[in-house]
Amino acid sequence: MAKRSAPEVNAGSMADIAFLLLIFFLVTTTIETDAGLNRKLPPIQEEPQDPPPLKKKNIFQVLINQQNDLLVEEREMELGDLRQAAIDFLDNGGQGCDYCQGKGDAASSDNPTKAVISLQHTRETDYSTYIAIQNELVAAYNFLRNREANRLFGMSFTEMEADFNDAQYNGNKDQLEDKIGVIRDMFPMKLSEAEPKENN
């Protein structure tokens, strides 16, 4: 009795199928990306202008040395105390701030719109320390913005920004953008990053 040969499987289209599967997974896969630091650079100006004069009391100096020590307003400070110190500076309640709740210290900032936080570090500063300090300073702004947004509009500033950036949001985005603008005008994020110092 003659042996029957097994039918051959046509493998000619296997390469096509593998190629189609590869394209399918490339198209449908989402790749996570790091958001990084959210900073907006000033627009390019035709002619260089001198910066407006700032009073020393309206500048909150934060320095980081090569050992990652934190020096705030010429005093050593722990990272855990930085956020509250920044809040006290920004919300001092000096001149013309009827929404500020600070002590009104004459040696601190006049107004949140005039207050500038200046951050400077050395080239040997650890990146993780630098980011942790950045986070604390941004958290101080967010705390004050959330407080005022809750007081004026009944929802936090972070919720308003999340709704504004949400494509599925059904509310009035123009009205929401106006509210966000009001809060940003009350507590503008003036975070100045000075050139790193060389360690001598």
From TrEMBL:
Where's it found, cell-wise? Cell membrane
A GO cellular-component term linked to this record: plasma membrane
Q: Does the keyword Protein transport apply?
A: yes
A single GO BP annotation from the record?
Answer: protein transport
* GO molecular function terms noted in the UniProt entry: transmembrane transporter activity
* UniProt entry tagged with the keyword Cell membrane: yes
Q: Report keywords, A-Z.
A: Cell membrane, Membrane, Protein transport, Transmembrane, Transmembrane helix, Transport
Any Pfam family the entry gives = ExbD
How does this protein sit in the membrane?
Single-pass membrane protein; Single-pass type II membrane protein
- Give the protein family: Belongs to the ExbD/TolR family.
Record protein name field:
Biopolymer transport protein ExbD
In its UniProt entry, the species of origin is given as Mesonia phycicola
